[in-house]
Amino acid sequence: MRLFAGLPAPPPIQALWADRLSRLKRSGPHASWVVPENLHITLKFLGETGAHRLEEITAALKEAAAPFVPVALPFEGVGFFPHERKPRVLILRYHRDPALVDLFGRVEDRLAPLGYARERRPFEVHLTLARLRRPWPPGEADRVAADLGTIPWPPFPAAGFVLFESILSPAGAVYIPLGRFPEKA
Length: 185
Fold this sequence. Notes:
Mean pLDDT: 94
Radius of gyration: 17 Å
Largest sheet: 4 strands, antiparallel
Number of strands: 10
Helix content: 25-40%
CATH class: Alpha Beta
CATH topology: Cyclic Phosphodiesterase, Chain: A
CATH superfamily: Cyclic phosphodiesterase
Low-confidence stretches: none
Order of helices and strands: EHEEHEEEHEHEEE
Structural class: alpha+beta
């Protein structure tokens, strides 16, 4: 099983992306576009994991989620990884709220003893919109970012997270929820 913990994007954000995505697919640059229902903020990518480990992972994630207080994350702009000069991944940035950063740290702390390596990069609060398989023509990244920046993206309500199984296929990834944390989220 290929697993990750993430905060799924709410329907208003998915709907805005669905509307713009249909236009980008028709006239935008070539990319591997993320379908609206797969939008999420990743807390932790666990990778290939045996099903026999689900119980201990679930217990660790329950502990990590227990003190979490919901927050609304304001939209902060459109960007690229690794950076704008060499765009490989198109993203929406959201506020790096201390409560969410704390949750990220607790998830890392609870999963490290189970053998999941800590993330070396700083936690970036973002939604991945596309992966660029090849470089876009000059100015195209700026044009797409400016266009997406005109959308009134609503705050991202972070009330909890989900443990997902990611099943890869030629048609794209399918995410299957395996658990919600906290359970009432």
